[in-house]
Each structure stands twice: as C-alpha cells, then as structure tokens.
Amino acid sequence: MLKTDNSSPGDGDQVSGHGMWSSKMAFILAATGSAVGLGNIWRFPYVTAENGGGAFVLIYLLCIAVIGIPLLMSEILLGRAGRHSPINSLKLLAQRSKRTWRWMFVGVLGALIGWMILSFYSMVAGWTLAYSWHYLGEIFATAPPAFDPQGKFGGLLASPGALIFWLTAFILLSLGVVALGVEKGLERAVRILMPMLFALLLIMVGYGMSTGFFQQTISYLFSPDFSKVDGNTILQALGQAFFSLSLGMTGIMAYGAYVPRDVPIGRTAATIALADTGVAVLAGMAIFPIVFANGLATGEGPGLIFVTLPYAFADMSYGSFFGFGFFLLLAVAAWTSAISLMEPAVAFLSESKRFTRVSAALVVGAATWVLALGSVFAMNIWSGFTIAGKNFQELLEYVASNLLLPLGGLTTAVFVGWALSRVIAREQLSELSESRYQLWRFLVRYVAPILVFVVFLSAAGVI
Ligand code: PFF
Q: What residue numbers bound the domain in which 32 lies?
C-alpha cells in the first residue's frame, strides 16, 4: 500500500521506503550527474552540426532559459511535494488538488520514455566502454597502433556481438546502482568523477585552441545564420534542451522525492542548468576544432565524437592515456544519467508490494536490454530497414527525444501551472520572492505550453 503522507512535507520525512539526499550539495551533484551525460558530449555536437551551428545553439540556449529552468523547478517541486515515485506523486498531488487521478499518466508516459531513451543510450554508452577498453590496450601496447578511426568505428557497429557485450555490461552497471538505492553509491561517484570529466574537457578545449581552428569553431558555434532555421530546427533544439536537462520524462521528479525540505529549488535548478549547458558548450569547443583541423565532415551523425576524437588522441603526447580517461569518464557520465532514466520505473514498481527494489531493477533492466537489441541490429543486420529515411535507432531517438520529451514537458507544465494547488506550489517555492514566483508561474502556465505547442505545429508543417 502506498503511504499517503498527508503531513506537511516536513524535515526528516521518509520517502516511502527510500532515503534522502544527505545535503543540498548531494542533490545538486546527483541531478547534475543526471543532466550531464552523453547528451552533452555525444549528442549536442552532432545535433548542432546537423542543424548548421550558431542559430541552433542560440535557440537551444533560449529553450534552456525560458522553458528548461522553469520546468526543472517544476519537476523538483512535484517530486518533493509528492515524496513518492513520479507516477504515485502525480496521482497523490492531483487528488490533494481535487483533480482527477488520471494525471498519473504523465508519470506513466515519463517511465515509458525513460525506457525508450535508455535502450539506445545504453548502446552508445557501450561504445564509450569499448573505446576506453581499446585505449587501455593501447597504453600497454608495444607496437604503435594502426590508425583508422572510421574503420574502427565501422567495425564496432558491424559487430552485433561486441555491441551486445558492451551494452549488457553497461545495463548491469546501471541496474546495480539503482538496485542499491540511488542515494548510496551515486553520491560518492558523482562527487569525484564529475569534476574530473570537467577538467579533462578543459584539457581537450586547450588542445582545440592549439589547432589553429579555434576561431572558426567559435564563429561556427556562436554566429547565427537564421536562414537555416525552420520548424524542425526549433523542434530539434527544444528536444536537445529537454534531453540534456533530463526533462519531460520525470527522472528529475524521481530525484526530487529525495530532496530535503530546506533546499532552495530556484537557485538549485539554475545551478544544474548552468553546469549542464557549460559542459555542452565546452564539448562543442573541444570537438569542432578537431573536425576542422583534420578536414572531417561535421555531418558525421551519431559517430561524430567516436571518429573525430581519435585524431586528437593520436596527435597528443600521452594520447592513449587521455583517450582512456576521456571515454571512461564519459561512460561514468552516461552511467549517472542512465540511473535517473531507470529510477522512475523502478521507484514505481518497488512501491507496490510485489517488487523489491532489486527485482524491480532487474525487470526494468531486462526490458531495456530487449529494446536495445533493436538499436544494435539497426547498426548492422537491420540497417536496410528504414522509415522516412531513419533506421530503428534513429526513429526511436527522434520520436522519444524530439516528440515525446517535449510532450512530457508540456503535460508537466500544464499540470503544475493549471491543475496543482497553488498552496502546494507556493510552499515548495517559498524561498522565491513574489515577483520571481510570479515569473516562474507565468512561464509554466503560458510560455512553456504555448511554445512547445507552436513548435510541434510548425515542425508538423501546420504553420
Ligand atoms: N540528460 C542526459 C544526458 O544529457 O545525457 C540524458 C537523460 C538522462 C535524459 C535522464 C533524460 C533523463 F531522464
């Protein structure tokens, strides 16, 4: 039975069998761990390249500021006010606000999107594991390694066995942490490893500066050419903003359930968004100089970092060492994100009597593994099967990231802005001044839903 916690969410309240982040910093680290991942370092550069650079980046930044931060605040407050898994929190809060319990389907949608994203996410995270293993081998190799980044990446994709091996390893790692409970291992891992990733990224940017193509990169990333913008570009920017901030699929809401009462939500959300955006922009500044310096194609697609970064590592002294560190830390960043993709479904299942946390994590992990096989085969034996020019993995990524995440965000915004009791919202955001609170309310009631809706219409060609 669900514990209907009607007490005011006071201090020390236990969350239906889960623990609590030990401090404000612990939550910031965990939420940043969720936000910073493959979305910043793998996806941001290639989606930016596919959408022509500067104008896309600008629209992306706008989406983060106007929709991302208010929604991040909304998800945290819903989690903390509900103190259960997102599905049950939404049900509970709807009932407390005298609304229909059916709002819980926003949570069901979120858990499903998490499952879809986690499937292809795990495959790509598997690539990072495979690359760290490769560089580890290079460190100890006696003969200089053969240099063929395109061939090496192609070889990995062509081998279902290798892809399945690394993806399985990654799912097991993620499942392990989720089964233990997110507060335990995660907090410690994130505290040490995230700053290391950041430092390594700075070294890569430093290398980028030395290539002589840094100026070109800056203008590529920041000088907008609006003639390239259409409805689909905006949809992609919006989708990337949601993906990168872990929004629209209730992952942050799930973490919000463990947030202590005294954490100021507004400032925390802004910090998370800033860190996340900083990492994405740094990744762009690290990768594009290498692309330009080596005359590589920007439109490489999902393989972009896997075929460009090896050029830099081959050129640097101690390159194998850096290559190993970079891909390993990227795998860790993906790991801390994958955990939050699993958490909504696992938290929900483990709230019912039928599942323990461990069995819930096993069920979600197994379901993810099965769906991930679709993405694996899309790289090789099923590569010929396409719909609208997209293979299974590309289709899944497009539908989940660009359509379903914004849809999840839209429904969350409508719930918070229009259905949730104002008393609950104001209490959760009690640290905000009245004017800031009103600004937040205006953004979630009007700006976020209307903008997302208009972007949908425009991408669908209706306007
Ligand atoms: N934000 C993660 C990234 O940028 O890699 C991906 C992600 C994690 C998306 C968790 C959604 C989520 F709930």
A: 19-459
For 29-77, how does the pLDDT look when each residue is reduced to its tens digit (9 = 90+)? 889 999 999 999 999 999 999 898 999 999 999 999 999 999 999 999 9
Calpha distance 67→461 (Å, rounded): 22
340 lines ligand 1 (CB under 6 A): yes
Q: What is the CATH number for 215?
A: 1.10.4160
Counted domains in the chain: 1
Report how far residue 167's alpha carbon sits from residue 365's, in angstroms, rounded to the nearest whole number. Answer: 11
Distance 279 CA to ligand 1 centre (A): 13
3-state secondary structure of 264: coil
What is the residue with the minimal CA distance to atom 12 of ligand 1? 246
Which amino acid, one-letter code, is at 388?
A
**Is residue 129 in some structural domain?**
yes
Asked if residue 2 belongs to a domain, the reply is no
Q: Model pTM?
A: 0.91
Q: How far is the CA of 163 from the centre of ligand 1 (A)?
A: 21
Both ends of the chain: CA-CA distance in Å? 48
In a domain, 4, yes or no: no
Taking the centre of ligand 1 as the mean of its atom positions, its distance from the CA of residue 340, in whole angstroms, is 7
Q: Whose CA is nearest to atom 9 of ligand 1?
A: 246
Determine, yes or no, domain membership for 6. no
